[in-house]
């Protein structure tokens, strides 16, 4: 019997998973359908560079369906809900699609409406977490001649947790280049007790902010954003003033998850086994990438490594075999620090980012600024479209975290 | 591992003062932990949150973040900050004897 595999979401995780499954399963084994509400695949890492004129919006978007292998069906439709009992996906247009295996890969959604004042129209409050916002911010930065810029993430989890920090570093570079850096204050405002979300990074990189003259406000939980009064107000009634605010809104899962009883948690993310990626509610349901509730970063690299694991597990599931593959929490990210340099970090559930080189002794430097890492970040865009999305197994960038080339420290605090 | 003594019993805590083994906690210890954290008395509202934290931890293996607390505990985020100033999820977890909520990844 031909199994119906339905993948919700044609982003990083959904696309590469569908392509890998198509490679591993014959058309008699399975029919694979990817559903998304539009046919615009956005290269999300590019959003960071847009506000500084370092990326062109038209180059960041390609067709979703064009990234899928022949034999993967693409359907443009908005999902309304999933009926776990009936094993059907209900569509907004009234149609429904039955499945034998369902994969939720619909990512995270921005929820500015959950913070008072953040969805009010304002000339002073911006975000770079969507294409329109990043373009609007580019114009605002170009007009900016001096004053206080506040970069704030409202709360975790967010996509690419280091992006707000990278934004601050790039802003330092951008205003230095425009020769008005001494007229601009940059303040990073975070709900966490450090600018870095990982203790090992906080230890190794703590001095970087002071070096770049970026002020830091910690444990600030934004309760409201007052664009007209130009201030952020925290729940414990502290205030941070600004002339221009760059705010990363709260994230939730896709809206349909909340309308699908049993599928998601309170924030709309799908609870899954952190190693097999199988839903805790149903054996035939899986989730990967930003839409899953995994205790690792919401990042493209994580979705990539999870996709490789999940393809093997779905093949095994269809053959009634135990799920063989295990995701170890492996994530890596380049952290752009401005002035054509970047850091690289690599970690998993158990291991904090370590210094050394990736993926082996002669690789890119870890936890240290270098030009090579900056070039790595830029080169990655091509690897993304031509290697990662088609589902190719990339040399040196695999699902399991590499140990070679890393220096273990005796003082390490553990993950 | 550091030790702390609450309600006359010695328990294991981590560097930040969170219980290593939540099973070592009991309700009699909560007022002392709260006082050490600057909350002089635990009211009924405090207890509503603490009990919710314990239940969530037992069911899900981890304590809720402040955002999840605000959505599911019946106490608004604003009120949570009045009850547990600075960091409601962190502070309530410490007083309830469960690990620091993850949330920060």
Ranges of chain B where pLDDT stays below 50 over 5 or more residues in a row are none
Give the N-terminus to C-terminus distance of chain A in angstroms: 44 Å
- As a percent range, the share of helical residues of chain A equals 10-25%
The strand line-up of the biggest sheet of chain B is 1-2
Oligomer: heterodimer
Helices and strands of chain B: which structural class? mainly alpha
Count up the domains of chain A: 2
Number of domains of chain B: 1
Strand order in the largest sheet of chain A:
5-2-1-9-20
Helicity level of chain B: 40-55%
Largest sheet of chain B: 2 strands, antiparallel
The CATH H-level homologous superfamily of the largest domain in chain A? FAD/NAD(P)-binding domain
Low-confidence runs of at least 5 consecutive residues of chain A: 410-415
Tell me the fraction of residues in β-strands of chain A, as a range: 25-35%
Question: What portion of the residues of chain B fall into strands of 2 or more residues?
Answer: 5-15%
């Amino acid at each position: 019997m031909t199994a119906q595999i339905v993948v919700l979401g044609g982003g990083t995780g959904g696309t590469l998973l569908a392509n890998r499954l198509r490679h591993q399963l014959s058309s008699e084994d399975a029919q694979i359908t990817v559903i998304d509400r539009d046919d615009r695949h956005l290269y999300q890492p590019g959003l960071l560079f847009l506000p500084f004129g370092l990326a062109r919006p038209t180059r960041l978007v390609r067709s979703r369906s064009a990234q899928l292998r022949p034999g993967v069906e693409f359907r443009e439709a908005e999902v309304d809900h999933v009926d776990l009992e009936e094993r059907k996906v209900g569509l907004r247009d009234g149609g429904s699609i039955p499945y034998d295996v369902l994969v939720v890969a619909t990512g995270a959604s921005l929820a500015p409406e959950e913070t008072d004042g953040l969805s009010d129209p304002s000339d002073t409050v911006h975000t770079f977490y969507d294409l329109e916002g990043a373009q609007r911010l580019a114009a605002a930065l170009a007009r900016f001649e001096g004053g206080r810029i506040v970069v704030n993430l409202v709360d975790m989890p967010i996509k690419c947790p280091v992006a707000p920090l990278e934004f601050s570093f790039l802003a330092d570079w951008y205003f230095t280049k425009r020769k008005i850096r001494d007229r601009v204050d940059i303040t990073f405002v975070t709900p966490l007790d450090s600018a870095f979300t990982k203790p090992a990074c906080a230890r190794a990189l703590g001095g970087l902010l002071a070096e770049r003259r970026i002020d830091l406000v910690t444990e600030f939980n934004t309760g409201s954003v007052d664009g007209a009064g130009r201030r952020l107000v925290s729940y414990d009634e502290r205030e941070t003033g600004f002339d221009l605010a760059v705010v990363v809104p709260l994230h939730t899962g896709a809206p349909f998850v909340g309308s699908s009883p049993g599928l998601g948690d309170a924030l709309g993310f799908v609870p899954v086994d952190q190693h097999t990626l199988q839903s805790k509610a149903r054996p035939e349901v899986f989730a990967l990438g930003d839409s899953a509730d995994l205790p690792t970063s919401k990042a493209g690299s994580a979705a990539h490594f999870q996709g490789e694991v999940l393809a093997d597990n779905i093949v095994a599931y269809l053959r009634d075999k135990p799920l063989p593959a295990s995701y170890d929490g492996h994530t890596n990210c380049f952290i752009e620090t401005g002035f054509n340099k970047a850091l690289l970090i690599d970690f998993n559930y158990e291991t904090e980012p370590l210094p050394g080189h990736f993926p082996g002794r002669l690789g890119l430097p870890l936890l240290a600024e270098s030009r090579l890492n900056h070039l790595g970040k830029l080169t990655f865009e091509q690897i993304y479209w031509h290697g990662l999305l088609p589902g190719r197994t990339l040399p040196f960038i695999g699902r399991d975290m590499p140990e070679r080339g890393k220096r273990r420290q005796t003082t390490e605090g553990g993950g | 591992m550091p030790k702390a003594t609450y309600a006359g019993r010695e328990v294991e805590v981590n560097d930040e003062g969170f219980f290593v083994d939540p099973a070592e906690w009991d309700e009699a210890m909560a007022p002392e932990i709260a006082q050490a954290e600057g909350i002089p008395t635990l009211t009924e509202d405090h207890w509503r949150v603490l009990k919710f934290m314990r239940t969530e931890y037992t069911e899900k293996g981890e304590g809720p973040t402040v955002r999840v607390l605000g959505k599911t505990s019946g106490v608004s985020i604003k009120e949570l900050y009045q009850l547990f100033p600075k960091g409601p999820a962190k502070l309530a977890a410490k007083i309830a004897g469960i690990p620091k909520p993850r949330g920060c990844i």
